[in-house]
Amino acid sequence: MAQSIIFDMDGTLFQTDKILELSLDDTFRRLRSLGKWDKETPINKYREIMGVPLPKVWETLLPNHSVEERKDTDAYFLERLIKNISNGNGALYPNVKEVFSYLKENDCSIYIASNGLTEYLKAIVSFYNLDEWVTETFSIQQIESLNKSDLVQVIIKEYSITNGAVVGDRLSDINAAKDNGLVSIGCNFDFAREDELSQADMVIDDLIELQTILMKLNR
């Protein structure tokens, strides 16, 4: 079995879409009240770029706004995300805790590497008690490049990982595995794209499939 499994968070462990629209609506309602937005909430545009670091999100959604306005919007959005998490409006994907328990029972180390911000990740880990299984959660905020491959490299170096896999739903996760000599496991979940998943070493439709896959990897 692979020694170390590095999971993405949004769209892999956490069903982000359950709080995404709520939080985005809250944020753009605020912008409209401030006279800084006069259109519908661009939820479809956000879905297209889901998985990129938040600073790049606001560059895309608010191309005509100042850097300061984007930072202010980002802060408010984060506040709403955390509020919706703490209110129980989100959810983990099916079988997350079952798979985590299985991995721990089989001496696998579990890490999270996410493009999400630190406080946001802490809110999810805390609400769902994921630290019962997860060794450490890493945010893209911890590295200057905002590159998932670099973030995974940090984990590998810190924990001397020589054998493992990256599990995620987007190309950044697949590339992070390949760039660091790990197995890439693509998740065919809500935000996944077929053209991106085709580049993964293997693809799953449910996290429970990891139990079988990891047994094969160990052989």
Would you write up a description of this structure?
This protein has 219 residues and is α/β, with parallel strands linked by helices. Helices cover 48% and strands 13% of the residues. The chain contains ten helices and six strands; from the N terminus they run βαααααβαβαβαβαβα. The radius of gyration is 17 Å and the shape is globular. The termini are close together. The model has no long low-confidence stretch (mean pLDDT 93).
List keywords for this structure.
Rossmann fold, alpha/beta, 219 residues, 6-stranded parallel β-sheet
How are the elements arranged and paired?
Layout: E1 4-7, H1 17-33, H2 43-49, H3 54-61, H4 67-86, H5 96-105, E2 109-114, H6 118-127, E3 134-139, H7 148-159, E4 164-168, H8 171-179, E5 183-187, H9 194-197, E6 202-204, H10 210-217
Parallel strand pairs: 1-2, 1-4, 2-3, 4-5, 5-6
Helix pairs in contact: 1-4, 3-4, 4-6, 7-8
